[in-house]
What does this fold into?
Amino acid sequence: MSRTPRPIPHPAPDTRCRASAARRGTVRAAVATVVGLATLAMPMATAAAAHSDTGTRGFGKADLQRGLDGIVRLDGVVGAEGTLVDGGQRTHARSGTAELGTDRPVPHQGHFRMGSNTKTFVSTVILQLVEERRMRLDDTVERWLPGVVQGNGNDGNRITVRQLLNHTAGLPDYVAHVPALRSAESFQQHRYDAYTPHRLVALAMRDRPLFEPGARFSYSNTGYVLAGMIVKRVTGNEWDEEVRARITEPLRLRNTYSPGKRFGLPEPHARGYQQFEPGGQLVDSTRLSMTWGDSAGDLVTTSHDLARFWQGLLGGKLLAPKSLAEMKKTVPAPVEGSAVNERAGLGVFWRGLSCGGGSWGHGGTTLGHLNTNAFSEKGERGAIVLRSTNLARGDRDARTEALLDAALCAKR
It folds into this structure.
C-alpha cells in the first residue's frame, strides 16, 4: 500500500455529515513494488507539457480519454478508469480491458481496492474522536495500547497518535515480513493467509525503529494498523464499523466497505494484475486476503464513492473547521529523486502543482490495484485515476501524475 501521496462542541448539524457518537527481486524490492510511494508528485516539465494544450480551453472528457489511452498503451496497463470532478459534475472515461485475453471493456464504476487511501478514512475517524474529547492527538500509543509497541528499541511511551497519522513515529513497516508480497511464487502460496492487527504489529516489532519519534518522515503502514487498534480501544468497535457509521453511511458511499476475510470483489470489477519483477509475468491477483492491509489499506470502493468522500472531507462535511485545519498541518515528506514540494498531513498529502499552488489527496497501491487522486483546497475540483495493473518498476507513474496535474491546472 502506498501514499501515492481519517469531546469538543460540535458545529451546527448542517455543517457536517456525521453519525451520532452514540451509534456507533528481493523482499525489499518486492515490497517497494507493492507498497511504493505513489503520491502524485511529478517532474514539473512533464506535467506542464501534459496540460500545455488544454490550459486555455479547459480539461474535459477527450483529454481524460487521451490520458488513459496513453497509460494503457505506453505503460502496459491492462485497464484504467478516470473521473473528473468539477462541483457537482462528474466526467468518466475508461481504457483497456477488464481482463487479459478478452475484449471486455473496463466497467464503469467498477469496484477496486483503494489501498492506502484507507488511511484517510481512519485518520478522519480519529479526528472525530478528538473532537468528541474521547482522546487526544498527543496521547501516547502506550496510553491506549499498553505493551503493544515494545522491543528492539520500539517504545509506545515515546510515540504519539499524531506521529502515527503523519508518519513521523519512526516505526518499522511490517510489510517486509508479509510473504505474499515477495514474489509471484510466494504470492500463490500465501495469497489467502490471514492476519490480525496484533500479528501485523508484532511482525514490525522484529525490526528496530528507523529514527527517534518526531525526528523526520518515513511512510509506515504499521502506524495506521495501530491507529485502527486505538479506534477500537476508544470506541469498543472495530475501525471499519466506525468508518461505516461515521463516514460511509452519512455520505451514502454504498460501495465502500472493508472486505474482512472475503477474498473477491463484487461485480462489476476489472481483474487486478500484479507484476512482481521488471519484465515478469502479470499475475492475476483479483482474489486474495487483504487482512494484511487492515486499517492501513483494505477498503474497497468505486471512483464515484471515492470522489464523494474527498469532496465531503475537504468540503467540511466530516470534520469541524478546526479539525480539518489540524488534518492539513503538514511536515515535509520528501520523495527521493523528485524536486516537487510534497508534505504529509494527518492521513492526507499536499503536493505542489506545476501551475502553482497545490492539491490534496492520498494515493493507494496494493496487489493489482492502484488509485491516484488530487483535489483542490475545498474539494470542488479533482481527478481520480484507477489502474488494474501494478507494474514492478522503480520509477514513479509519471504519466498518471501528469494527467492529474493537467486536470487540476487547466482553466475552467
About this structure: Residues 341 and 375 are 16 Å apart (CA to CA). The chain has a mean pLDDT of 87. The first helix runs from residue 27 to 34. The chain has one domain: 13-409.
